[in-house]
Design goal:
With 210 residues, the chain is an alpha/beta fold. It is 54% helix and 13% strand. This is YdcF family protein.
Length: 210
């Protein structure tokens, strides 16, 4: 076979492999996207069983106050709290890299106190920098205070991954209550969540086989 023909064969093989790879990525991303947008909470009814504590997953502060997106999470948690779903809060999140002078947790605590929640009912995780750390450090607070059950509060697009992480960390039962957003650019957050979910599944696999 001439060198020209060999080159054409290799180019065709490369093109075929590239097409298969692109298709596989598209199927993977489409599957995860479907899981993300169809998540309705755990349990699926959306009504959590009464728990010891509600864990509000952190997000950005603006000028040391909850951003509009984070306020949506806090307002959803307040609704559950007032309905009797839990009697204590854990708020999670460390110091942002955006010039904030308060941790996410401290800003969240301040907001809840202004809404009438006694400060004594709010425990803070001020060190976490990711969803995994949010739930890991919140679990440590629960263990220290002998709280056995929790409702995890976040946005819908974030709920499935949060539930998967909670299961990996030994939360039992796993309960995730989610809210939709009227203020976030969801096309951006859902796309970013596909990447974050992929990273989490790789990390989870390493934990399982490590």
């Amino acid at each position: 076979m001439s060198s020209g023909k060999k080159k054409n064969v290799w180019l065709k093989r490369f093109a075929w492999l590239a097409a298969v790879g692109i298709l596989a990525i598209a199927v993977w991303c489409g599957t995860l996207y479907s899981i993300i947008v169809r998540f309705d909470g755990i349990p699926n009814s959306g009504t959590p069983v009464q728990a010891d504590v509600g864990i509000v997953l952190g997000a950005t502060l603006w000028n040391d106050k909850p951003s509009p997106g984070l306020q949506e999470r806090l307002d959803h948690a307040l609704t559950l709290y007032r309905q009797g779903a839990f009697k204590q809060f854990i708020v999670t999140g460390g110091l942002d890299d955006n010039g904030a002078t308060l941790t996410e947790a401290a800003g969240m605590r301040n907001y809840l106190v202004l809404q009438g929640v006694p400060e004594a009912d709010i425990a803070l995780d001020t060190e976490s920098r990711s969803t995994y750390e949010n739930l890991l450090f919140a679990k440590a607070i629960m263990d220290k205070r002998q709280w056995k059950s929790a409702v995890i509060v976040t946005h819908r697009y974030h709920g499935s991954r949060a539930g998967s992480i909670a299961k990996q960390l030994g939360y039992s039962p796993v309960q995730v209550s989610v809210t939709d957003s009227k203020v976030l650019k969801l096309s951006y957050h859902k796309t970013r969540e596909v990447l974050a979910y992929t990273k989490w599944l790789l990390d989870k696999a390493r934990m399982s086989f490590g």
